[in-house]
Amino acid sequence: MEFLGLVNYALFTAIFIAIYALLALGLNIQWGFAGLFNAGIAGFFAVGAYTSAILTTPVDDGRLGGFDLPFVFGWIGAMLAAALVAWPIGKICLRFRSDYLAIASIGVAEIIRLVIKSEEVLTNGARGINAIPRPAGDIGYTESQIAYLVIVLAVLIAAYVLVERQFNAPWGRMMRAIRDNEDAAKAIGKDVEFRRLEAFIFGSALMGLGGALFAHFNRSITPEAIDPMVATFLVWIMLILGGSGNNRGAILGAAVVWIIWSVSEIATDRLPHEYAIQAKYIRLFLIGLMLQLVLRFRPEGLLPEPLRGDLRGSRRTTKSGTDPD
Amino acid sequence: MELFELLNFYVIPGIVLGSIYALGAVGITLIFAILRYAHLAHGDLATFGAFVALACVTGMGIPPLAALPIAILVTAAIAVGIDKVFYEHLRDRPKIVTVMASLGIALMLRSVVQVVWGVDTQTYSRGIVRPEDYFGLRIRDRELYTVAALIFLVGGLQLFLTRSKWGKAMRAMSDNPNLALLSGIDNRKVVMLTWVIAGGLCAASGFFLGYNTEIKSMMGWHMLLPMFAAAILGGVGRVEGAVLGGLIVGIAEELSVLVIPSEYKAAMAFAILLFMLLVRPTGLLKGKVL
């Protein structure tokens, strides 16, 4: 019994890591390869989660849908919806420095939160959407967890292979050129705004997919299912600690940070009840501090951005992102 | 609707809320123009200031307004400290890295507030204050104090920026950092001064939000978007623009209730922000675009 509990816990953790790794990959497209600061990850996550939930749940009179579609359509829909939200924001903000995108993405996440809370027709309000079908969900508990882990891992590996391919392709080289020297990229005729928009939309679509995977795993999604600031921040620290600009780093960061995060939760759960609430906020403080320490002492992360092209094999003297804006 | 009803229930609360936003937006605009990054911890710094004032009120038994100067000084010191410990060493990295660090600082400041003061809603003084009647306009004393503080603090700041040597140095850094450094302006002092001013104004903003409504650990974070909208609406780097922008955002938020559901009041600031970026990114008073 004890053994089975451990197995289930490990499976649960692995699924969460895979979902967060997908989010970190999405952020890596935006930040690691295009230098775009998205502070509204939780917003795109929520859009994906709710879109997939609406598309795949059985018909419900109280709200829009559900449309009872197979989960694959829900996941594709989630990616499309997140991309559709990202498009206008990117269109408006990517002409400017990334600071403006940071502010606007905070705003987007806030508006999405308001919509989810107040538009009952769409999202069933505070009660959320339940009975979301999980692929391979009607077999035994442990078997179904294993099956879902396999599916999530397959999605993650597919995303990783595709993203990695893109990064080594001319497109990736161009994105890094734009990130590292915008003026030079512009001078050789690259459409900087459009390329950034591409990166922003691709990244957001992956975040939407992450949200969908989460909703189907949980079988329900409510406005309180995820704390926007904590989720956004966790993904950021995963990418920075793992190594921005490195896809394997993003996945490693997701694993390391999620394990630290859940182990610290186990530790604080053992505290007496009167400290339990405070301990929760101390954990948040420490995760914020961790970001400051990484930014200061190891800005390149655990797995630094790989050297590419002519620089391969020779150590680069400037770390990625050390050149002034 | 009657004119007085409109003024009493929408315009006056809008001006008060706008003054609160303006106090924060001035700091944001200064940091944006002089240090050249968006400071995302500004809202939570305001929360911190409000709670410092609360600690003075409950701990020393002084009236809230007497706690304000203490809160301003403490928060200004904290702001300088945060810059020294967390932002200073990021100065030669791309500015966006500091933006990221400030997001982390926002989280840290908020969790300090939540650990020390808890997550419950609190107030500076209990009981309901009835508004006074001024020729049909119903205004509470605290609302007058809020607007007066805005005029006093920003007026003082304007005098400082235009008349004093260090104020001129700050403006020079904002206009052309390289030229300012070449002419021998001490960068570190200008940075420190900027943080003293921004931190102090931030505390005032948080204090007056708490004084007019309630004190909550999330209140500053929710103010961040309106404050940025105000700074960009007025024009980045323009102090008087930030005040104007703050007032417009505040009044627009209160008036928005007449046309859109009140749940979406907070969306007003976002709409203004996107609209300005789309139509006139330099803001109303021709600020800079970074």
Please specify the SSE layout and strand pairing.
The complex is a heterodimer of chains A (325) and B (290).
Chain A: H1 2-32, H2 41-56, H3 71-93, H4 98-118, H5 120-123, H6 141-168, H7 170-180, H8 182-187, H9 192-218, H10 228-242, H11 247-269, H12 273-297
Chain B: H1 3-35, H2 42-60, H3 64-87, H4 95-117, E1 132-134, E2 137-139, H5 141-163, H6 165-175, H7 177-182, H8 187-212, H9 219-234, H10 239-256, H11 267-279
Antiparallel strand pairs in B: 1-2
Helix pairs in contact in B: 1-5, 1-6, 1-8, 1-9, 1-10, 2-3, 2-4, 2-8, 2-9, 3-8, 5-6, 5-8, 6-8, 9-10, 9-11, 10-11
Describe it.
The complex is a heterodimer of chains A (325) and B (290). Chain A contains twelve helices and no strands. Chain A has helices at residues 2-32, 41-56, 71-93, 98-118, 120-123, 141-168, 170-180, 182-187, 192-218, 228-242, 247-269, 273-297. In chain A, helix 3 (71-93) packs antiparallel against helix 9 and helix 11 runs antiparallel to helix 12. The model of chain A is unreliable at 310-325 (pLDDT under 50). By secondary structure, chain B is an all-alpha fold. Chain B has a single domain (3-118, 138-279), classed as ABC transporter involved in vitamin B12 uptake, BtuC, CATH 1.10.3470. Chain B is built from eleven helices and two strands. Chains A and B meet through helix 3, helix 4, helix 10 and helix 12 of A and helix 4, helix 9 and helix 11 of B.
Short description:
Chain A is mainly alpha-helical and 325 residues long. Chain A has twelve helices and no strands.
What are the salient characteristics of this protein?
heterodimer, A: 325 residues, mainly alpha, globular, B: 290 residues, ABC transporter involved in vitamin B12 uptake, BtuC
